[in-house]
Design brief:
mainly alpha, globular, 128 residues, single chain
């Protein structure tokens, strides 16, 4: 890997982390429209979730969701948010200086949600 590409990759990762914070805070803003909030919460939860739609150990496909789905989700969430909501969210994200807020309740909810989805998938598969 070239030196320049490693630096640009680090800048891109830092930008993505900043946008994750922006999306997180925008989703919590009471003035955000419900559809934008839903998309933002789903994208942030998926980006932070330790469980991927396509597991990373699957060659090529495993990384595609991280390379394509997450940035597209961020783009959609940011496009759906009104500019004043985004401005406030970016301000709060800048104040956090890249530190993600920790919330064990949300983390537990995400894990329970994934387990529930897996159970529903197994039940559906067994009935076929």
């Amino acid at each position: 890997m070239k030196r320049g590409s490693r630096g640009s990759l680090k800048r891109w990762a830092a930008l993505l982390k900043g946008e994750l914070l922006t999306v997180y805070f925008a989703a919590r803003d009471p003035e955000a429209p419900w559809l934008a909030r839903f998309v933002a919460i789903a994208v942030a939860a998926y980006a932070l979730s330790p469980i991927d739609l396509i597991p990373d150990f699957i060659p090529v496909l495993g990384l595609l969701d991280d390379i394509i789905l997450v940035p597209l989700g961020f783009w959609l969430a940011l496009k759906l948010m009104p500019p004043p909501v985004l401005a406030r969210a970016r301000l709060r994200a800048a104040e956090q200086r890249g530190r993600l807020p920790r919330n064990l309740k949300v983390g537990a909810f995400i894990v329970v949600l994934w387990v529930l989805l897996m159970v529903l998938l197994v039940v559906w598969w067994m009935r076929r």
